[in-house]
């Protein structure tokens, strides 16, 4: 007869406190039922479920029932288990709705491709008894890059002079990682502020969450490049600047040239791309790069090679 | 100059139908033209399917649909009076197709536009016809546009973009 959760914990985690003794799961298909206190067994290894992962945005908590925060009982370390959840949905980008698909097999394949590459989250796919492609992930010990930048308690000129060169250097490494992924025929698929993390130990940047996929055939990497453009804008600006924030700067008697609709991002029309208008010390090469993502742009980046080439020039200008 | 050779890009969409209609109207059965209806296989994304069997089934349906579209397009052109032997159809297989038949040329799936231009160049078509979706600037950035890339990358041929 198979072990109970109590027997497993007595054997592997005798000193651990647990409020609830749940069930042992070898088939994770019904992931909604699996909750704190349950144990998931994958390839003979035991994962004690602590709770469901929660995504926080705009102050709203969105539980992700298919993502479980766990303790790997054999090692005592924390792990994240992403259970199989097929989801087709529309990703909203400004006025556009992009058909999107959550693909466990894509993420599993990329985990194999980027094994031991510190620029990406690490983990491995493991099939459960029902053949579900579960991804076992090592927790990135760090902080979201945008939060890390937010927490720098300096004004923009100081940030620009003191912190930006180092951040850009590391960001280039992250962009090279995406370029390498593209060269392997894969896309990240979900490049956004909360998917690039700064590790506590090295300060290096790590990409997480690459299970989104899209069916773009003429410009398969366009969405990734656009995501990087948005991140670059955030990095250079130490945040995004809406119409309202620009208005507040003007109210504070800052002399700012007239802001036109084409100064804002092409897709997110409430984010100023032409940052030079509010921060005149931003070098031309940097601002030109940001303007590639603006409503006024007539040329776009088609490849990461082009993007990286300009980014390298930017770094030289801010150093 | 093979100005009488016309290549129509036919992806099974309404835009491609408009392109075929346009060529049919403009030629009105005129003699001496050689027309090729060309489809580049665009595989459904493998990651959209739980397993390879489901993906392969979708690839088969995709192929059947496009080949039927080509046959239908050919019928429309020949009904307008163009002799049947002067209308060809061609289906360029994807290099990654699970139904691979090892053709001389296959599409690597990185740019349909460049595949179309490759066929035009190697087979000396001097006119390339394509229907246009009319995408927004943002959509073009994100998803790309076959017609725009053909306009920018095409050389040594005339390009008709049917709106």
TrEMBL record, chain A:
Domain of life: Bacteria
Organism of this sequence: Desulfotignum phosphitoxidans DSM 13687
Name of the protein in question: Serine/threonine protein kinase
TrEMBL record, chain B:
Protein name: Universal stress protein UspA
Annotated gene: uspA
CDD domains: USP-like
InterPro entries: Rossmann-like_a/b/a_fold, Universal_stress_UspA, UspA
Pfam families referenced in this protein's UniProt entry, alphabetically: Usp
Similarity remark: Belongs to the universal stress protein A family.
Annotated Gene3D superfamilies: HUPs
Top-level taxon of origin: Bacteria
Domain UspA: 4-162
């Amino acid at each position: 007869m198979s072990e109970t959760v109590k027997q497993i914990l007595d054997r592997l985690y005798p000193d651990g406190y647990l409020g609830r003794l749940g069930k042992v799961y070898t088939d994770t298909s019904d992931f909604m039922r699996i909750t704190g206190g349950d144990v998931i067994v994958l390839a003979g290894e035991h994962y004690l479920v602590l709770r469901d992962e929660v995504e926080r945005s705009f102050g709203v908590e969105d539980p992700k029932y298919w993502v479980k925060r766990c303790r790997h009982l054999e090692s005592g370390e924390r792990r994240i288990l992403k259970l199989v959840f097929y989801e087709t949905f529309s990703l909203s980008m400004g006025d556009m709705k992009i058909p999107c698909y959550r693909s466990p097999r894509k993420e599993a394949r990329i985990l194999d491709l980027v094994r031991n590459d510190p620029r990406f989250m690490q983990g491995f796919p493991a099939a459960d008894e029902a053949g579900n492609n579960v991804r076992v992930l090592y927790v990135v010990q760090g902080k979201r890059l945008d939060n890390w930048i937010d927490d720098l308690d300096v004004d923009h000129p100081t940030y620009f002079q003191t912190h930006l060169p180092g951040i850009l250097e590391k960001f280039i490494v992250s962009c090279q990682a995406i370029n390498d992924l593209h060269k392997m025929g894969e896309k990240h698929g979900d490049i956004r502020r909360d998917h690039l993390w700064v590790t506590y130990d090295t300060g290096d940047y790590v990409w997480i969450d690459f299970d989104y996929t899209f069916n773009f055939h003429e410009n398969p990497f366009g969405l990734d490049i656009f995501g990087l453009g948005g991140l670059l804008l955030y990095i250079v600006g130490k945040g995004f600047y809406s119409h309202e924030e620009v208005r507040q700067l003007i109210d504070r008697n800052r002399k700012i040239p007239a802001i036109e609709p084409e100064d804002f991002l092409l897709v997110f029309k409430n984010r100023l791309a032409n940052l030079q208008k509010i921060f005149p010390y931003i070098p031309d090469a940097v601002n030109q790069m940001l303007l590639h993502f603006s409503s006024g742009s007539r040329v776009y980046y088609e490849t990461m090679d082009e993007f990286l080439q300009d980014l390298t020039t930017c770094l030289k200008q801010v150093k | 100059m093979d100005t009488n050779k016309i290549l129509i890009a036919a992806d099974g969409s309404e835009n491609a139908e408009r392109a075929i209609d346009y060529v049919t109207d403009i030629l009105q059965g005129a003699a001496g033209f050689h027309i090729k209806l060309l489809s580049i296989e665009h595989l459904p994304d493998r990651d959209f399917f739980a397993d390879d069997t489901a993906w392969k089934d979708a690839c088969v349906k995709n192929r059947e649909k496009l080949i039927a579209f080509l046959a239908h397009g050919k019928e429309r052109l020949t009904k307008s009076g163009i002799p049947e032997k002067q209308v060809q159809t061609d289906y360029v297989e994807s290099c990654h197709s699970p139904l691979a038949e090892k053709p001389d040329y296959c599409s690597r799936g990185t740019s349909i536009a460049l595949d179309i231009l490759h066929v035009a160049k190697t087979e000396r078509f001097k006119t390339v016809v394509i229907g246009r979706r009319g995408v927004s600037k943002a959509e073009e950035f994100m998803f790309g546009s076959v017609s725009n890339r053909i306009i920018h990358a095409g050389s040594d041929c005339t390009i008709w973009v049917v709106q």
